[in-house]
Amino acid sequence: MIVAAVAALLLLPVLVIGAATGGIQVSNPSQTAIAEIPVAYLALYEQAGVAFGIPWQLLAGIGKVECDHGQNPDPACSQEGVTNSAGAGGPMQFLAGTWQTYGTDADGNGSADRWDPVDAVFSAANYLRASGAPDNIPAAVYAYNHSQAYVNEVLGWATLYEKQAAPADTTTGSTAAQPAVAYALDQLGTPYRWGGDGPGGFDCSGLTQAAYAAAGIGLPRTAQAQYDAGPLVPAGQPLQPGDLVFFGSSSTAVEHVGIAIGNGEMVDAPHSGAVVRIESDQWPNYVGASRPAGGQ
Fold it and tell me: Which of 21, 40, 63, 119 is deepest in the core (most CB within 10 A)?
């Protein structure tokens, strides 16, 4: 049904939108995007992005966080008329009041339906454009959901879905690192557990070890051992998504590790009583960074 609806849309050319977008730039899909996003949804994100002049990755980031590109089994994501506890429904999780203002009949069937993927994705693009994108993407995402954690998560996925432009691209990181970053982002909200290496709880090095295991790369278990394993990023070189970021009193007393996701942020399991979350990678007592996936 979705594929047929997409095929009925006019196939629009891909445009390059040269706006400052908070770290996100328009590009072809990364391997992570191709692997994760159903082809019909990827086409919708790209076409709606062009139609409203916003990066398609932004729509994909919201689609991932809200309903996993229509793959979340929650009935509120796909079952006509069903909403979650907040009253949101459809694959882009619109509230009825917001839909009344920004909902659009994108497939031209005579009905603007928030559970219809075509209508929902194009309406999300409409809403983001009206909220300030592409000139101020973080503010537009915040308008979509008034949570800074939500903004960080959406932008993290959006960056991951962008194809790297060059082997040493500091925006998207190496292809090998992308599954590790995707795994870490998928664990957001998981409780911290001392000695935990998943799936129900993580400590800092358990999270990074599990993330790189998802990318087929083995890491030692502790933060100190992961630092020692390298390869270290030369001092002064910009971090790439997937780099491990280490903190402690010295290079022989490493106490904490997170995984960089770009835009000066990392995913980490910070301490007891917390959950896996996105934080600034500019903590005090920075020791250095390593690049387990290499620079390509």
Answer: 63
Percentage of the chain lying above the pLDDT 90 cut: 73
Q: How many domains does the chain have?
A: 2
Q: Give the CATH number of the domain where residue 200 resides.
A: 3.90.1720.10
Tell me how far apart the alpha carbons of residues 113 and 117 are, in angstroms, rounded to a whole number.
9
DSSP string, 50-103: HHHTS-HHHHHHHHHHHHTTTT---HHHHSTT---TTS-BTTTTB-HHHHHHH-
Same domain, 145 and 271: no
**How confident is residue 17, by pLDDT bands cut at 50, 70 and 90?**
very low
At 294, the pLDDT band (50, 70, 90 cuts) reads confident
Q: Which residues lie closer than 8 Å to 229 by C-beta, 6 or more apart?
A: 219, 220, 290, 292
Q: Quick one: 11 and 150 in the same domain?
A: yes
Distance, in Å, from the CA atom of 58 to the CA atom of 215, rounded to the nearest integer, reads 24
Q: How confident is the model at residue 174 (pLDDT cuts 50, 70, 90)?
A: low
Q: Is 218 exposed, middle or buried (0-12, 13-18, 19+ CB in 10 A)?
A: exposed
Provide the domain limits for residue 116.
2-160
Distances (CA, A) of 292 to 188, 216, 237, 257, 281: 21, 11, 15, 13, 17
Please check whether residue 296 lies inside any domain of the structure: no
141-159 mean pLDDT: 92
Q: Tokens 């970021």 — which residue?
A: 245
